[in-house]
Amino acid sequence: MKKKLKMYFYRFTSKITDSINKIKPKVKSLFTGPYAGLLSMAGVTIIIAIIYMCINIFSNSSNQGDEPATIEAVAMVESESTTKEEPTTIDKETTTIDKETTTVSTEETTTEAVEIIDINDIPIAAGDLSTPKERNGALDANEPSPPMVTPAISFSPSNYSTISYGIDVSKWQGNINWSKVKAAGYKFVFIKVCGRATLSGELYLDTKYKENIEGALAAGLDVGVYVFSQAINTREALEEASLIVNCVKNYNINLPIVFDWETGFYSGGRPYRSNGAKLSNAQMTSIVNTFINAVESQGYEAMIYGNPYDLSLFDVNSVAKNHKIWLARYWSYYRNNDNYYIPGNQTPETTFPYQVWQYKDTGIVPGISEKVDMNVAFITDSMKIHSNHSSLTIKRGENFNPLSGLTATNSAGQDVSNKITYKIIASNGQEIALNTAINSYGTYTIKYTISDFTSTSACCTTSLIVGSDPIIKLASRSLSFFDSSDASLTAYDLALTLQNEIDSNVISVLDCNNKNITSSLAVTYPSPMYLMNENGKDVLKNNISSTTVLRPGVYTLIYNVQDSYGFKAQEKFSLNIISLINKQLEYSIDVAKSIDFSTILENDLKNNIRPASSIVTIKYDESLKNTLINGGFNADDEFTVTYTINGLDEALHYKSCTIKIKASLPKETTSGETSSEN
Questions:
Q1: What CATH number is given for 391-448+458-467 in this structure?
Q2: 157, 421, 433, 564: most buried, per Cβ within 10 A?
Q3: What are phi and psi of 229, to 5 degrees?
């Protein structure tokens, strides 16, 4: 009885307040003109408001046979009472809602700070007033066909780690074996706690909510709760928030409290009270925000549930900026069959983000005898950008696609590589254009981002180095080196001398910033050019030691360098090591007088230069020429032969060799052989 009296008192005072707000502007005009000061504004306002209220009550009573019409009339008055002259304020963010031109009131709506209503002040029906028809008819007329990229066969939630599968239940699912639900791989559940009747507007409790919450928590599922709302003003939204918070305060739920506001029609076209109220977008937004603010004031997270149509009845884009959305959207592919959502399948496209998708209302779940709503919650840390490189290096002016080689998957496991965006950040922290970066030396950071329908994003960064190859400047690209130019030098000395000439041939090595990096230069020898005596054997080597002997021949050396950015350069260098094997060739008088001496001498002179290909000409002095023609060699004759040698440095070199005739040669030297003297 006490509750009913409080309820009637509240409705009576509420209607007086609504009436005062309705006629206050008109009464106020009486005191701003010639009547100012004649009457008490407050008194007259209250009297007229009571009269206005009585007229409304009489008018409403004439429609008692048509409940939806009554709801509409009351709703119009109640919704107008929520209008203020200030812009709407949403928790932690201020958003101005445009004036509605097609609604009952053209005033802007304000969502003010709210306080939870004492449970004793909330009228609650004695029984559960819900009906089985309270199901979200969220079929999508524009669904893709088919809405999948992978076959939904052998479905088991435990097979997929990137998606969290869950359900939502009420008393209509009957007795539930929560251990079986958990064992089947389902991770979360939203449980109906209370609701508001679709015609009378009375609040009621779901008769299974306690049993379901306790069972789901005991089984280890993540638990959220929801209220089936038919609120048509902010007061009713506050009642619903207060009721559900009071019901769950003793349970350790870890998912949001959900505002499930739905429109609908009974068979024959009779609308739910939510339809009949014909709320404006601004009024509905105020109702939603009232619920959110009330729930969050008690330390809970709020979430909004709805199908695309119901969500469009308020400013969902504004609400979704700071609060999670649970989207109900059914595709026929999943209805009344064994098809279930699998990561990689398509997801609904919306203008707002959502985090949970109710995609099927005919699911079969172990432990539940009735059909059940199926949901997927998208695990945002499964969203990733995959890159094959942590850094990129390009030459200045080089064509470059920052997105090349990148792939991405979103929270639903879908390939969204084509939705990756990027920014190029200079060393000073400023964003610059790609064209600017690739034409300017420097090190940059490329920040890649991918966002998806859950409003979350994933990022990764890559270093971009823009430079150019170092420049190696050589004194010459070729060198002819004579290993017997100085008889006082040992073979090892000659090798060191050659090495110094190779090193000194480098004038400078500069990187793209003109920094001298000559110290980073290295020389490689594709073919061994040194002979070393190791254990009594000659071994080809590319480095020198105390036993090094130069090996005559033409070689290609390569100067190599790599700068600190990883840019490389090389220059080739040709080296001709020329060896005059003997500075003096000696022959016995017997050999000199032989008829073959001219041929012997010619062959010996050719073999006296290595490589022989370096010889251009061999010039005999006049005395040797005449003696070869006329004969008459004598012991102790001495002649001079001059070699003309073509070096790789595009110059001709001249080397001399002495020919000496002796009475006899040492016994170990046979006829036709030469005795040498270096």
A1: 2.60.40
A2: 157
A3: -100, 145
